[in-house]
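Posting here for the record, re: pyridoxal-5'-phosphate.
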Amino acid sequence: MQFADNPQAWHEVPPTAGLPLHLSDLLPGRADLAPAIADFLQVEHAQLESSGTAALIVALHALHGLAPHRHIVVIPAYTCPLVALAVVQAGLTLRICDLQPDSLALDTQMLSDMCDSRTLAILPTHLCGRVSAIHDIQAVAQACGAWVIEDAAQALGAKVGNDSVGSQSDIAIFSLAVGKGLSIYEGGVLIARDPAIRAACAAVSQRLAPARPLIEAQRAIELAAYALLYRPALLPLSYGRPLRHALYLDDWLAAAGDCFPARTVLHKPGKWRQAVGVRALKRLPAFQADLHQQAVRRLPQLRAINSITVLEDEEGKGTWPVFILLLPDRADRDAALQALWGSGCGVSLPFVHALPDYPYLQELIPAAALEKRALPNARRLAARILSISNSPWLDDASFSYICATLANICKRSY
Ligand SMILES: *Cc1c(COP(=O)(O)O)cnc(C)c1O
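Prediction output follows.
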């Protein structure tokens, strides 16, 4: 799977551009991360949870408590499988909405047909840092009395005008997991505009997310190991080797990191991990500005490849952990993965499947969504999507090598 002419072959680029931790971030200390993140987002208040999924579960419980007669939650057909699992764990009913063609945005016509007086919430998603437009979705939500929860798990720092993504919706969640911008190994953040919703979320968290010292000890060790191993010379060990082993076994779900446990344990993140997050957060604005500049520099090279679609922000200014591309068809995409995934240059998949096509999710998915011809746009997107890391460790020569490889593969489609 290694390519002799791949200039990056000697080291390993992570699949997304996470903020590298400094060893000094790991010094002893105790802090509150939530107010620091509220400050970063320029919102009044933020609530810290043990993961993005935990934040979503807390949000759903809180909203259901405010409207017990509503129990349906609509999510996009191409997103993190944890989102579907969170809805089920919150005891609510899952509905899956297709995307617009060649887009990460919800199909608003289908969405509006799905929503009624039983709909609790709609979850538009800013996938991979790309900002989706949510006005139409807010209009659909308003028409049926549902709330909007923006899934900004991968978009901490993305803006619409001067506001953080999600700050104009009822609730937004962000992830602090490995590979998602700022990481404390596992963590999540929830923001809510309305004080009543905020209070409901705080009360649910109080009830469902106790301190769990054993889990916290494990997370602290994992965070320290992650800080040590997240560097080009050591990533072959922590990321590359398991990746290449999974690819050797043809296990794409393991290779893409798409295997998740059915239930998420909610707990309070400890003060030391929060202190690590507070120290690292100070470097996030400069880091994200560098990623933005690198993206601006590299996007034209990607757009110049014939027959490739580069997914961009619908509005606002996203973050750039990765570039998201659509290739002409599945054969080209799979050829690109064959050539590049596992070669150390940061090419990967955001998620392997549209939600109904994950074998381990199938018993949770509504029957209509399981039909072969359902959700055509999301399935076509999943078959053609590919991500390229925007890590600063991916040098220009390697990026050009990726572009040349993609151009070569897509030429065959003409
Ligand atoms: C990662 C992710 C989540 C879940 O966040 P965790 O912190 O991993 O629980 C939710 N939605 C999207 C779009 C994600 O990428």
